[in-house]
Write a structure and sequence with these properties.
Layout lengths: L8 H20 L4 H27 L4 E2 L1 H13 L5 H13 L14 H10 L3 H5 L12 H6 L2 H18 L2 H25 L36 H6 L15 H11 L3 E2 L8
Antiparallel strand pairs: 1-2
The structure holds zinc ion (ZN) (2 copies).
One zinc ion (ZN) binds next to α10.
C-alpha cells in the first residue's frame, strides 16, 4: 500500500543525498562550537515540527495550538524536508488503522530496512491521495494547504542552505541542515515506524496492552525522539497528547507541551493519567 510499481526517482535522490550528506558531515567536516549549537537548535526545531505539529496536533488532534506556533513549526517541517503534512496525516492514520497488517506501508514484518527507509524509495503519492478521506477534517485547513506545496518546501530549503553558506560556510550547511534533518527524520519518525514495531526490541520495562499490533516502547530513545518512542502507549491511546503511561516513563514532547501551555501557545491538552 502506498508503494508504486517503480522507483520514485525524486524521493530516492533526496534520500541518497541525505544519507551520503550526513556521512560526509560526520566523517569529513569539523564543526565549530557555533555550528554545533546550530545543529542542536535545528534538531530540536525539526523534531518538534514532526512530533508536536505533524503527529500529535494534525494527525491526532490531541490539543489546540496557537496559529503562530503552528506556522513556526510548519516552517521547521518544510525546512526539515518532512514533506506534505497532508500526506503525513493520511499515511499515519492509515498506519494506525492497519498496523502490522500486510497493507501497513512500513511494518518491519516485511523487513526492518524496508520499514525504516526503503519503502520511501517507492513512495506513491497518488496511492496515498486515494485515501484522502482519512484526512477529510483537514481538507480546508489553511496550514495544510500551505504545507502541501512542494515548490515552497524546496525553495525554503534552498534559501536556508544559502543563508547558512553565506553566513558561515559549507560545514554549517551539512552540520546545521543536512545532518540534523536526517537524524531528526530517523529518531522521530523512521526509527519509530520500524524499531518500535520490531518485536526483537521488546523490553522488560514495557507494560503491554492489547493493541492487536507489534508496537512497543523503546525507553532509551525517549530523549532523542522527544517521547515518540513510547510508541506502544501511543498505539493503545492514540488520542492523548502524552505518551507516558507509567510513573517511570518520561515523555519530553509532553513536557514541552506543558511548558507551551503555560505560555498559552497550546491548550485543551487531552491527558492520559499515569498509573
Ligand atoms: Zn506505529
Ligand atoms: Zn500516531
Amino acid at each position: 500500500m502506498f508503494i508504486g510499481s517503480g522507483l520514485n526517482i525524486p524521493y530516492a535522490l533526496t534520500l541518497l543525498y541525505y544519507i551520503f550528506g550526513s556521512l560526509y558531515a560526520i566523517f569529513f567536516l569539523s564543526p565549530s562550537l557555533t555550528v554545533v549549537s546550530l545543529f542542536v537548535l535545528h534538531y530540536i526545531w525539526i523534531s518538534l515540527a514532526n512530533g508536536i505539529l505533524y503527529h500529535r496536533f494534525l494527525s491526532h488532534r490531541s490539543f489546540e495550538m496557537h496559529p503562530f506556533l503552528q506556522y513556526f513549526l510548519l516552517l521547521g517541517g518544510l525546512i526539515g524536508y518532512l514533506g506534505s503534512p497532508y500526506e503525513y496525516v493520511i499515511v499515519h492514520r492509515y498506519h494506525h488503522k492497519n498496523s502490522d497488517k500486510d497493507v501497513d506501508p512500513h511494518s518491519p514484518k516485511k523487513n526492518l530496512f524496508w520499514a525504516n527507509i526503503l519503502w520511501l524509495f517507492f513512495y506513491d503519492k497518488n496511492k496515498v491521495l486515494m485515501h484522502k478521506k482519512l484526512a477529510k477534517d483537514l481538507e480546508n485547513n489553511r496550514l495544510i494547504k500551505l504545507g502541501n506545496n512542494p515548490f515552497l518546501m524546496r525553495t525554503l530549503h534552498i534559501f536556508y542552505a544559502l543563508f547558512l553558506y553565506f553566513s558561515f560556510d559549507i560545514t554549517a550547511v551539512f552540520w546545521g541542515l543536512t545532518l540534523p534533518n536526517f537524524l531528526s527524520f530517523q529518531f522521530n519518525w523512521m526509527a519509530i515506524a520500524s524499531l518500535c514495531h520490531w518485536r526483537r526490541f521488546k523490553s522488560k520495562k514495557t507494560v503491554f496492552y492489547d493493541t492487536g499490533d507489534n508496537s512497543l516502547n523503546i525507553h532509551w530513545l525517549t530523549v532523542l525522539s522527544f517521547g515518540e518512542s513510547l510508541h506502544h502507549n501511543h498505539h493503545y491511546k492514540p488520542g492523548y497528547a502524552n505518551f507516558d503511561h507509567q510513573q517511570r516513563e518520561i515523555d519530553f514532547g509532553f513536557i514541552i507541551l506543558k511548558l507551551l501551555s503555560k505560555l498559552n501557545l497550546v491548550w485543551d491538552l487531552k491527558v492520559c493519567q499515569k498509573s
